[in-house]
């Protein structure tokens, strides 16, 4: 296939070892860092559709919504408010800035302490939001939540990729995305329950309960072991070898240990990873560190997940029904992510990307057409329940396509492609681009919905075409390749090989013989 090199199990070293209960438990605990991100995505859209919350903090939006319903005016524009979107999107701006500081903490102190810092900060933000008296307290709380998300999203995917055996790295890393989807689902269920609380304070419960996932990752991180990669990088070589034996469940770890030491020795030659990542030999990794999170947000998924209740309200569902519809999409998200866990190390990353992109494109065309056929450009219509349910069906199919492709792979692929010397910096770039794009989309969605109308779905559909073609031509297959031998994948790719010289390939003591053999083996599978 001209689109990318496919490296089979023989293309990278298959180190001895098995999936031990120790590693499985550590990966499950670390993956709970995704709960805080998912809970926030689900909770923010729900509370902004609750009338008591709008009356207290955004009375102008509430009056605008009521007027639109009384006068049967433009449904596309009834939630358009920059202040309301700033409440949602301020978190992502804070996460963007925090991810750069998290890179230093992750590299100097280890991955687990970055997770701990994220959990504690998120906990403080949850307390502030639950007790909020005004918009300033709300947004300050969101900023603290954002710092927590920035630290967790920077450290968790790297931790999972380093702990997992190469042949199961995809499955274990996607545990992070699974926890994100579980967090979204729990938030949707909580919103559905708290919206029924008499007295109009249910939104406080929704916001304050963010403390639960925060406490889980903060406390859980204290019991996590450091990864062998991190221990070697910080000079604890004896502990690293002992930990490598424990995580692989075998004493036969010398070869993998030698490769990790070689990678660490090379990383120590790099005193300025932020400057080095701009070097020509890291061009493939830098490109994907930017492109994958950029494209992930332009699938339009966060439009659905942030504003699902608001979107369903716009379609004509009642308050309870709109929250229940968000619960349904949350369930689809969880089950489809589980499909990805079962298939990613068997089918590979590329096939899931391509299939998911095709499915999302088809669904966006249908959803945009169905909404456009009823609302048109005026935004005024009375949609029958059966018709609205049909729209929800295709929204669920779209969510499923995302949840087994761009959702989990958007975190997995960037976390597994960087050599150790630029890994923390590379993951920070991935998180910061993700958060910047999420901020822009969250801030722009409601104004864009008001102005683009149903054409907004075609706008995101066009981006899905671009990203699917990009993956088809430029993303090599990375399944089953040990994380510290990933340079061989780029060296064997039809396009990226031009950026990597032979002397840039360092994967262990027997570099010359082994890398040349693997590169030739990989080329045979292009």
Structure report:
With 526 residues, the chain is an all-alpha fold. It has 24 helices and no strands. Helix 5 runs antiparallel to helix 6. Residues 1-12 and 509-526 have low confidence and may be disordered.
Number of DSSP helices? 24
Give Rg in angstroms: 23 Å
Number of strands: 0
The mean pLDDT is: 82
Order of helices and strands: HHHHHHHHHHHHHHHHHHHHHHHH
- Proportion of residues in extended strands: under 5%
Taking pLDDT < 50 over at least 5 consecutive residues as the criterion, the unreliable ranges are 1-12, 509-526
What kind of sheet is the major sheet? none
Q: What class, by secondary structure content?
A: mainly alpha
Name the shape in a single word: globular
Q: Give the proportion of residues in helices.
A: over 70%
Distance between the termini: 6 Å
Q: Can you tag this structure with a few keywords?
A:
526 residues, mainly alpha, 24 helices, globular, disordered C terminus
Helix-strand layout with pairing:
Layout: H1 21-31, H2 33-47, H3 51-57, H4 59-71, H5 82-108, H6 111-130, H7 135-163, H8 169-194, H9 202-208, H10 211-222, H11 228-233, H12 237-248, H13 254-268, H14 273-276, H15 283-297, H16 301-314, H17 319-347, H18 349-375, H19 385-403, H20 406-416, H21 420-452, H22 455-474, H23 487-491, H24 511-523
Helix pairs in contact: 1-7, 1-8, 2-7, 2-8, 2-10, 2-16, 3-4, 5-6, 5-7, 5-21, 6-7, 6-9, 6-10, 7-8, 7-20, 7-21, 8-9, 8-17, 8-20, 15-20, 15-21, 16-17, 17-18, 17-19, 18-19, 18-22
């Amino acid at each position: 296939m001209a689109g990318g090199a496919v490296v089979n199990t023989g293309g990278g070293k298959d180190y001895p070892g098995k999936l031990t209960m120790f590693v499985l438990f550590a990966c499950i605990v670390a993956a709970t860092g995704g709960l805080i991100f998912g809970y926030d995505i689900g909770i923010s859209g729900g509370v902004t559709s609750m009338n008591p919350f709008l009356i207290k903090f955004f009375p102008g939006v509430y009056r605008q919504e009521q007027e639109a319903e009384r006068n049967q005016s433009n449904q596309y524009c009834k939630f358009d408010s920059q202040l309301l979107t700033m409440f949602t999107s301020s978190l992502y701006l804070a996460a963007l800035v925090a991810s750069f500081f998290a890179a230093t903490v992750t590299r100097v102190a280890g991955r687990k302490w970055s997770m701990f810092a994220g959990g504690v900060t998120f906990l403080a933000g949850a307390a502030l939001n639950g007790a909020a008296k005004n918009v300033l307290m709300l947004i300050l709380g969101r900023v603290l939540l954002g710092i927590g998300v920035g630290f967790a999203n920077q450290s968790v995917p790297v931790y999972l990729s380093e702990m997992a055996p190469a042949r199961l790295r995809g499955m274990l890393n996607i545990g992070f995305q699974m926890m994100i989807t579980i967090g979204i689902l729990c938030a949707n269920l909580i919103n559905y329950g708290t919206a029924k609380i008499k007295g109009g304070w249910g939104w406080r419960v929704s916001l304050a309960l963010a403390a639960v996932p925060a406490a889980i990752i903060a406390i859980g991180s204290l019991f996590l072991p450091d990864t062998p990669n991190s221990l070697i990088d910080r000079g604890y070589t004896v502990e690293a070898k002992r930990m490598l034996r424990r995580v692989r469940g075998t004493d036969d770890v010398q070869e993998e240990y030698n490769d990790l030491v070689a990678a660490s020795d090379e990383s120590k030659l790099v005193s300025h990873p932020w400057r080095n990542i701009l070097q020509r030999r890291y061009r493939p990794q830098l490109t994907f560190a930017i492109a994958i999170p950029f494209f992930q947000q332009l699938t339009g998924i966060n439009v659905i997940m942030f504003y699902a209740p608001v979107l369903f309200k716009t379609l004509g569902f009642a308050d309870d029904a709109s929250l229940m519809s968000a619960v349904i999409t949350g369930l689809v998200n969880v089950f489809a992510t589980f499909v990805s866990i079962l298939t990613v190390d068997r089918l590979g990353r590329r096939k899931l990307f391509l299939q998911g992109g095709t499915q999302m494109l088809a669904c966006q065309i249908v959803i945009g057409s169905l909404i456009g056929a009823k609302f048109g450009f005026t935004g005024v219509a009375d949609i029958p329940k059966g018709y609205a349910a049909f729209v929800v069906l295709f929204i669920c199919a779209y969510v499923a396509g995302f949840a087994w492709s761009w959702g989990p792979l958007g975190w997995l692929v960037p976390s597994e492609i960087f050599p150790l010397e630029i890994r923390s910096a590379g993951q920070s770039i991935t998180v910061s681009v993700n958060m910047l794009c999420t901020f822009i989309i969250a801030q722009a969605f409601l104004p864009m919905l008001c102005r683009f109308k149903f054409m907004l779905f075609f706008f995101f559909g066009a981006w899905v075409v671009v990203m699917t073609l990009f993956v088809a031509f430029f993303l090599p297959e990375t399944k089953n390749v040990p994380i510290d031998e990933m340079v061989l994948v780029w060296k064997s790719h039809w396009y990226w090989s031009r950026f990597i010289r032979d002397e840039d390939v360092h994967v262990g003591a027997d570099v010359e013989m082994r890398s040349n053999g693997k590169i030739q083996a990989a080329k045979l599978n292009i």
